[in-house]
Amino acid sequence: MVKAIWNNEVIAESNETIVIEGNHYFPPKDIKQEFFKSTDTHTSCPWKGVASYYNVEVNGEVNKDAAWFYPEVSELAKGIKGYVAFWKGVEVR
Asked: DSSP states of 2-26 as a string?
């Protein structure tokens, strides 16, 4: 079981993550939605597509744009459509 933890709270856990470029991508069904708030941030990956971001909010603290996902993906990245990955201090283990 792979877990994503921030601010001492498990915010996602899955046996079905996909690892790409060293990041675990969690299936959307395995993130705890109550900790995720959509933002207006977007970035572009040359081969995956345009990423959207979530703030991670736990116990009144906000980790801005700490999670990202690709709502639409290129053919090369179709396996991670909608899957969520983390950075900015979110521990994945």
From this structure: EEEEETTEEEEEES--EEETTEEEB
Q: Is residue 73 part of a domain?
A: no
Q: How far is CA 92 from the centre of its chain?
A: 11
H or E segment to which residue 83 belongs? none
DSSP string, 53-82: EEEEEETTEEEEEEEEEBSS--GGGGGGBT
Per-block average pLDDT, block size 10, for the chain (93 residues)?
Answer: 98 98 97 98 97 98 98 94 98 98
Please give the pLDDT value at position 26.
Answer: 98
pLDDT at 71: 97
Residue 29's CATH number: 2.170.150.40
- Cβ(32)–Cβ(11) below 8 Å: yes
